[in-house]
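Holo model, zinc ion. Inputs:
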Amino acid sequence: MSASSTLEISRCSSCHGRFLPRPGACPRCGSGDVTRHRVPAKGLVLAATELTAPARGWTAPHRLALVELAEGVRVLVLVEGPLPGHGAEVTVARDGDRYTARTPGGTTAGGRGEGESPVAGRFRPPFEPPR
Ligand SMILES: [Zn+2]
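Output:
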């Protein structure tokens, strides 16, 4: 298994917590007995959303997904590609302090199989924004 197909997670020997690597002690119990392990860089999509008007500096549509990795570790990822459906398997990559998931077009495993945005072309703001 190459480094590019795995991700690091941390395991706490004291409370058996699992979490994304971070400096310092266990965020659950404060123990310093934390070790890092590599797990496959695959996860299942728990939820995904698309922002049509993201914050300044981000391009629209801005897609985010909550992904569960091995051992129940959850991570919020930036989605590159079509919005994945619930239960879709994605490959997660770490880029500095950011995690991304690439979704192949049209092959999402769950939810909307076509991988199209549920709001594209249909979203209407509830009011006219002030000018
Ligand atoms: Zn702990």
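The pocket of zinc ion is lined by residues 12, 14-15, 17, 26, 28-29, 31 (CB under 6 Å). The chain has one domain: 3-102.
Archived with the compound record.
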